[in-house]
Design goal:
- The complex is a heterodimer.
- Chain A has one domain: ATP synthase, F1 complex, gamma subunit (Pyruvate Kinase, Chain: A, domain 1, 3-Layer(aba) Sandwich).
- Helix content of chain A is 63%, strand content 14%.
- Chain A has helices spanning 5-60, 67-70, 92-107, 119-128, 145-160, 206-282, and strands at residues 77-82, 112-117, 131-136, 166-174, 180-188, 201-203.
- The longest helix of chain A has 77 residues, at 206-282.
- Chain B has one domain (5-82): F0F1 ATP synthase delta/epsilon subunit, N-terminal (ATP Synthase, domain 1).
- In chain B, a hairpin with a 2-residue loop joins strand 3 and strand 4.
- The radius of gyration of chain B is 12 Å and the shape is globular.
- Chain B is 0% helix and 64% strand.
- The chains are: A alpha/beta, B mainly beta.
- Strand 6 (201-203) of chain A pairs parallel with strand 5 of chain B, so a sheet runs across the interface.
Chain lengths: 283, 85
Amino acid sequence: MPQNLRQIKNRIRVIDNAHKVTSAMEMISVTKLNRTEKLLRGFRPYFLKLDTIFNRIIGDQNKLGSPFFAGNGFKDICLCLISSDSGLCGVHNTEILRFAEDFIKSKGAGRVKVVAIGRRGLNHCKKYGYQVLSSYTGLNGRYSDDLCDKIVSDLTGIFLNGKAGEVFIAYTNFKTALIRRPTLVKFLKLEAPKADEIKYITEPEAEEIVRGLIPKYLFAKMRLILLEAFTAEHSARTIAMKMATDNAEELSTKLLLLRNKVRQANITQDMLEIISSAEALKG
Amino acid sequence: MDKIFHIDILTPQETIYSGEGVSMVVPAQLGYLGILADHAPLVANILPGKITVREPSGNPREFAVMNKGILEVFSNNASILLDNA
């Protein structure tokens, strides 16, 4: 703690500035959080339904011979790593990067190729020398269907062209504002559940329906994952900024008290000096 | 009394309808399809058109749909998933 009055005043000014910045950033994050969270909440029941239908009808139409189910026999693995572009969001990136690192180690670093979404993940992969197939940066947690479409066609392209035999996605799952968990899902190849067969009446032919359903399902899955990841990012940032703002406030109050104390001590000191010198003159 | 079944109409953004119904008419790929309770398992593509749901009160509800989608009927649950606008 600085003891000099001017130093304390400077310190207070600096902290008040930081306070202004963090509280502004908090407000921005809250707005972004609300927007993506609304999209996410609207979309979850839709995806749940689609997932159920998809699994039921796939269970029925197993022997379809779609390349998405067949697999291509390649041993390489593609990991789509979703992180954020910017920092200042607490442990959000640290957690997901450590999680991805564990996954890559467990599979053997030489076998894993990365598709990086978010600058933090990209930098991490470059630093450790992983093979990056493609990257998406500058998104700032803003979801759009175009983006989702691009990523899906990128990943399916990687799979269909035989660059990888399996595609995984590592992202942060948003449960509540306080519970966010790094999660790994398998995106491709698709696996038919061994569920009980349901005989559906279909219109048109089942094959045609499934053919239409696969891209729709992949798109929906990606959309959900992106929304989860972006919502988690914004919520992490909101909380980090809120804590920073609270800390700044607390520190500022403490320093204010200290400043008053020091000022008072200075005044007392001056008074004593004046009185004692006056006494000395009298004497 | 008419038998009822559960109907959900969802878009990626929101739930348009979720509740019970006595009957439902949807624009499927090969023409309009009528669904009643205890329908056999069914999956069908949906085309833009008008979805009519008759509620248990006898009140018909109509939804004009501008997008394609998919309909699934399974054990007295009918779900319509519509694509993005």
